[in-house]
Amino acid sequence: MTTDRSRRQFCSTAVAAAAWTAFGPRAGAEGAALAASRPGTLKLGVASYSMREFSLDQTLEMAKTLGVTSMTFKDVHIPRTDPPEATRALRAKIEAAGITIMGGGTITIPNTATIEKEFVYARNAGFPLIYVDPEPAALDTIERLAKSYDIKVAIHNHGPEDKRWPRPQDAYAAIKSRDKRLGLCIDIGHTTRTGTDPVQACRECRDRLYDMHVKDLASKTEKESQVEVGRGVIDFPGLFRTLIEIGYQGQVGLEYEINAKNPLPGMIESMAYMRGVLAAVATS
Fold first, then answer.
1. Residues 52, 257: contact at Cβ < 8 Å?
2. Do the Cβ atoms of 136 and 187 come closer than 8 Å?
3. pLDDT given for residue 183 in this prediction
4. Phi, psi (deg, nearest 5) at residue 140
5. Phi, psi (degrees; rounded to nearest 5) at 194
């Protein structure tokens, strides 16, 4: 049951979100810095796939507007086909912009002899983690290389259409007895569409939860029903509270997949809601 106290807290959340949207990037950046200084809080960031129609320079400008200081990167922004020196130069540009690189992907990994090139790419790009869609038969090689390169590998679940890893629990079953560098990137939207509660999935898989993609859905079953975070059916107060309780250390990364040609307004609204909910949960 909702208490008067929780109602007041979430009214304050709405006010905080509205203020962030009204006062723009400076307020967002200051809020992000303040949140990052609090013990037991969460790292709110962005998956660069959200800006897939834009160059890296434009993407970094958008990140500045959003006030985010951590990101994961898609290969549209750090191409996997570039030579090593070009990859390292892009890494330097990102770091010079004040962004902490949290990882990259999604990388599809077939069971072939070319798997190691993905780890070489990740090392040059400064990725401490890659999130992947691997063939199950490739896991032995992936585990060996993860240990050799000391890079975490997180299997990304892709919902009902994914015949290998539809739910986080399906990936967890495949890696729970393997090296600790193998874990999960839970996509809460895809998880919801399988009929799985993402909050419960985080609890069940907490010891291997290394990354997270955040989106919201108007319908629990429809892939194309994505909306701005806070406008849909996903329980973000419950999710954020659980992540804090389990001591989650990875990025809570907004992956905004709608309005690809003009994502910034929806991303601003989504980040404002996420920050507001985190502020309310952290004080409850």
1. no
2. no
3. 98
4. -60, -45
5. -85, 0
CA-CA distances (angstroms) from residue 115 to 26, 86, 98, 173, 191? 42, 20, 31, 22, 27
Q: How confident is the model at residue 282 (pLDDT cuts 50, 70, 90)?
A: confident
- List beta partners, residue 157: none
DSSP state, residue 74:
-
CA pair distance 106, 96, nearest whole angstrom: 24
Q: What is the pLDDT of residues 60-70, one digit of tens each?
A: 999 999 999 99
What domains lie within the chain, and their CATH numbers?
A: 4-282 (3.20.20.150)
Buried b (16+ CB within 10 A) or exposed e, 18-53: eebbeeebebbbebbeebeeeeebbbbbbbbbbbee
Q: How far is CA 240 from CA 57, 111, 246, in A?
A: 31, 36, 10
pLDDT digits (tens, 9 = 90+) for 9-25: 444 444 444 444 444 44
Please name which of 255, 248, 233 lies closest in space to residue 278, comparing C-alpha atoms.
Answer: 248
- pTM for the whole structure: 0.86
Amino acid, single-letter form, for residue 197: D
Distance, CA of 278 to CA of 118 (rounded, Å): 34
The residue type at 202: C
At 112-162, the pLDDT tens digits run 999 999 999 999 999 999 999 999 999 999 999 999 999 999 999 999 999
> What is the three-state SS of 206-230?
HHHEEEEEECEECCCCCHHHEECCC
